Amino acid sequence: MKNLVFQVNIKPNGGRSEGRKKFHYISDMYDFSNKRASEYAKKHDADYFCLKNEYDYLGKKYTPAYHKLYIYELFNSYDKIFMVDSDAIITKICPNIFEFDTLSATRDFTLTPSGIKKSKRKQDVFGLKNDYVYFCSGVVLFDKKFYNQSKDYWKDVLIEACNNLRNIQHDQTVFNVLADRYYGKYNILSDDWGSHRRKGKFINHYANSKIFNFSESDFLKWENKL
């Protein structure tokens, strides 16, 4: 079985960016994240690839976040693809994600009353099933089943999401709609795997609100206590 760790590190290109969420490019953080992801891949006998130029199909029309859809090209050569945002940093104690055999990701909202309300709103706005759990696309393990069952539909869903859906969350909405329609239930990872809500001991996902506070030395000091 051939596995891959995949990241996108493309500088802002002025492309399509529906929704209120704007991304900031912090080169030091992204480079450190890429280095850690590459080391993680080597540790677990996987390949590593970082997309640094726009995917031709999407070009400069779409912002870098959408270019994570390049996984549909990569699946021609791989069985599992671990997709990690470049603002998420893998720690030294992170387990082998490839031991999971299904799509795996952290839930985007907590099981608190507020989180359940937000999740329900996502279901309503994006036309998802009532029992579907909306996931964060910053750290996701995709399997071949996801590829096989959605590869003929992702381009149509991308166009549909960008043209018709309110409050689209870039690639995250596209991947969730595809998973809901063509995949079904997936493995829900704990917050330690890169939830944006708190520091995860396996992956620290800084996300947009915390990205300006990144310091490699501070990260290493925190990591040494794990």
Give a short synopsis of this structure:
Helix content is 35%, strand content 17%. The chain is α/β, with parallel strands linked by helices. The protein is globular.
What does it look like?
The protein has 226 residues and is of the alpha/beta class. It has a single domain, classed as Alpha-Beta Complex (Spore Coat Polysaccharide Biosynthesis Protein SpsA, Chain A). 35% of the residues lie in helices and 17% in strands. It contains 8 helices and 8 strands. The strands form 2 sheets. The chain has a 6-stranded mixed β-sheet with strand order 2-1-3-6-5-7, sandwiched between helices. A two-stranded antiparallel sheet has the order 4-8. Helix 1 links the parallel strand 1 and strand 2. The longest helix has 17 residues. The radius of gyration is 16 Å and the shape is globular. The model has no long low-confidence stretch (mean pLDDT 91).
Secondary-structure map with pairings?
Layout: E1 3-8, H1 27-43, E2 47-51, H2 71-74, E3 80-84, E4 88-90, E5 104-107, H3 113-126, E6 135-143, H4 144-150, H5 154-164, H6 170-182, E7 187-189, E8 203-205, H7 207-210, H8 216-223
Parallel strand pairs: 1-2, 1-3, 5-7
Antiparallel strand pairs: 3-6, 4-8, 5-6
Helix pairs in contact: 5-6
SSE class: alpha/beta
The CATH architecture term is: Alpha-Beta Complex
Strand order of the largest sheet: 2-1-3-6-5-7
Under CATH, the homologous superfamily reads: Spore Coat Polysaccharide Biosynthesis Protein SpsA, Chain A
Q: Per CATH, what is the topology?
A: Spore Coat Polysaccharide Biosynthesis Protein SpsA, Chain A
Please tell me the total number of domains.
1
Helix percent band: 25-40%
What count of helical segments does DSSP give? 8
Radius of gyration: 16 Å
Number of strands: 8
Give unreliable regions as ranges: none
Q: How would a textbook summarize the main sheet?
A: 6 strands, mixed
Mean pLDDT score:
91
Q: Report the top-level CATH class.
A: Alpha Beta
How far the N terminus sits from the C terminus, by CA atoms, comes to 31 Å
Shape: globular
Strand content: 15-25%
Topology order in helix (H) and strand (E) letters: EHEHEEEHEHHHEEHH
